[in-house]
Each structure stands twice: as C-alpha cells, then as structure tokens.
C-alpha cells in the first residue's frame, strides 16, 4: 500500500514537499495543478511549478487545461523532466476551474472529446519515450451519474492507455458533508481484474478513517491524503506505524525559509497563509496562532510570530506520535 501526498492548490509545492519528506515522507507527491497553456507558452511562474525537489522520482505532475492540444504539449514538456508520472486532473469541481472546461468538466463533455484528449496526451508521452506513468484523478461525475455512465468513462480511460486512476468518490457538487462512496473504487478494481491500480482519496485523516477506507477498498494500491498532510506533515510516517518526536517550531521556521527559496515573492504571503491555516490546528491556542500567521504582513513578521508563539507556549513545541 502506497501513501500519496495529494495535489492542493497553493500547497503542493516544493517547500511543502520538503516539510513532508523531513517527517518521514510520502511514496509519491502530486504537484498542485499546472496550467497546460501557461506551461506551453512559458509563463513567468512555471519554473516554480515544475521544481521536482526534494525527490524527483516521486513527483507526479498534475496537469489542468481545457484543450487537448495544450495538454498534450504540456505532457511532452513534463515527460522530458521525468518523475513518477503525469496526471490529468478530471476531478477538480471548483467553479472557477470546471466552468472553463477543465477539471471535472472533462467528465461532463462528450465522451469522444475526452477520449481524443487522453489519446493525444498518451501519444505525446509515448513519443518522449520517458516510460513514466499516465494517470487520471477523477470523481464519480455529475450528480445524476449512473454506474453505467461512470464505468463507460473509466473503460474509455483504460482503453486509451491510462495506467492508474485516483478516485475521489463523490459527485461534482458533493462536499465534505457527504461520505465518500468508496465501494465504487473496489468495483473499479474488480472491473479491470486488478490490472489498473486505483488510489483512493477523500476524508482519510487518521488511522481509524484509513482503516474504514481499507475495509471498503481492500485492494486499493494507494491512499491519497491532502489537507490532513498540510495539518500534520508527519501523517504518512504516523500511519505506517512510525514513532517520533518533532520540533514543531523548527518545522514551521524551516518551512518559511524553504518557501522563500522555492516560491516567487508574489506567492509568498498566500502560500504561507495557506499552510499555517492547517498547521496551526495542532496547537493549544490554534485560532489565535492562525490569526497571527494569516495577518502577518511579511515573511520576517511571520518568523517573529512563530518564535513568539512558542516562547509563550513552550509545551506546544514538541510533538510526539
């Protein structure tokens, strides 16, 4: 069973991966969504999206876009960099993504159009002879999906050369209050005789939720965890049965320094805010700590506020699991 660090906008960047790796690491790291047209045209920030540190063989590049041509060209670029694989995002249900024709919109289009897109991406990757994996992250589809429509879609993916599927088993409008329908992941595995690995994603936050998911999907090849990893970068080591004592202050300060090194100045504040929104939940005065970090006006101020918090709350400094 693999543990996969999932793709999260403004979070799944190099500095965050470094923090997770320091705490025991994941088996694979999906990047935040890389906009295919921006990558193809050489956008000013793309070099930050395509950093493959700290573990190049573990990186899975996640692509988003609304046109098959740009997705294929972007896949060719990323295949040249290497890594574990390229993933086409067909699961993002944020309106600002799917209303442009990207994300889960690929599950809502005519099947033939999505087939041509996947075929083009597969061809582009094969032409590079990189040998890296093509995968898709998807949901169940629209709210009125049926088993037949869902499996017709996944049949097409497999026929066109998709080698792994990550399933977030909710529909387009189902949010966290809806329980993931993990039984569809197990049906997916059985449908292809176990030849297509399936990763499961959704509401797995600790050992008990992982156990429940594994009971429903005993043949899953991997568990993808996203926001829970932002709160607890050590979660993968913890779920493996590891035991450690971590300096929470040092982890926070190291993250800020890595952020300064691996993100452009324009991104620093939002990336810092996003991480500490989750990370601060570990501590006694979490809401106060969150507000302090979110309202910091600079990286220097954020460093000072981390130090100030742990000076006032020294018992929070060490985390043991």
List the helices and strands and how they pair.
Layout: E1 2-5, H1 14-22, E2 28-30, E3 34-35, H2 36-41, H3 46-49, E4 59-64, H4 68-81, E5 85-90, H5 95-98, H6 105-108, H7 111-128, E6 133-138, H8 147-159, E7 164-167, H9 183-191, E8 198-201, H10 207-216, E9 222-225, H11 227-231, H12 235-239, E10 245-247, H13 248-262, H14 265-279, H15 286-294, H16 299-312, E11 318-320
Parallel strand pairs: 1-2, 1-9, 2-4, 3-4, 4-5, 5-6, 6-7, 7-8, 8-9
Antiparallel strand pairs: 10-11
Helix pairs in contact: 1-13, 4-7, 13-14, 13-16, 14-15
Walk me through this protein's architecture:
By secondary structure, this protein is an alpha/beta fold. The chain has helices at 14-22, 36-41, 46-49, 68-81, 95-98, 105-108, 111-128, 147-159, 183-191, 207-216, 227-231, 235-239, 248-262, 265-279, 286-294, 299-312, and strands spanning 2-5, 28-30, 34-35, 59-64, 85-90, 133-138, 164-167, 198-201, 222-225, 245-247, 318-320. Strands 1-2-4-5-6-7-8-9 form an eight-stranded parallel β-barrel, surrounded by four helices. Strand 4 (59-64), helix 4 and strand 5 form a beta-alpha-beta unit. Helix 14 runs antiparallel to helix 15. It is globular.
């Amino acid at each position: 069973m693999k543990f996969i660090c999932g793709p999260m906008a403004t979070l799944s960047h190099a500095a965050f991966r470094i923090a997770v790796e320091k705490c025991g690491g994941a088996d694979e790291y999906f990047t935040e969504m890389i906009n295919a047209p921006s990558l193809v045209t050489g956008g000013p920030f793309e070099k930050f999206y395509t950093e493959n540190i700290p573990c190049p063989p573990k990186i899975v590049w996640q692509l988003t876009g609304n046109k098959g041509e740009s997705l294929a060209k972007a896949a060719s670029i990323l295949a040249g960099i290497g890594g574990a694989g390229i993933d086409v995002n067909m699961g993002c249900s944020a309106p600002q993504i799917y209303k442009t024709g990207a994300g889960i919109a690929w599950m809502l289009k005519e099947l033939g159009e999505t087939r041509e897109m996947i075929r083009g991406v597969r061809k582009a990757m094969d032409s590079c002879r990189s040998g890296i994996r093509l995968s898709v992250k998807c949901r169940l589809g629209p709210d009125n999906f049926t088993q037949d429509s869902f499996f017709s879609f996944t049949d097409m993916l497999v026929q066109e050369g998709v080698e792994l599927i990550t399933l977030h088993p909710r529909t387009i409008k189902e949010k966290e209050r809806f329980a993931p329908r993990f039984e569809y992941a197990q049906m997916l595995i059985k449908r292809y005789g176990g030849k297509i690995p399936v990763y499961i994603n959704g509401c797995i936050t600790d050992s008990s939720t992982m156990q429940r998911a594994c009971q429903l999907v005993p043949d899953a090849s991997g568990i993808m965890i996203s926001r829970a990893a932002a709160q607890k970068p050590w979660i993968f080591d913890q779920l493996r049965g590891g035991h450690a004592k971590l300096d929470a202050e040092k982890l926070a300060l190291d993250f800020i320094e890595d952020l300064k090194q691996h993100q452009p100045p324009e991104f620093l504040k939002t990336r810092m805010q996003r991480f500490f929104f989750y990370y601060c939940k570990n501590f006694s005065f979490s809401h106060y700590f969150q507000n302090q970090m979110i309202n910091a006006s600079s990286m220097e101020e954020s460093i000072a506020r981390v130090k100030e918090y742990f000076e006032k709350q020294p018992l929070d400094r060490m985390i043991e699991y």
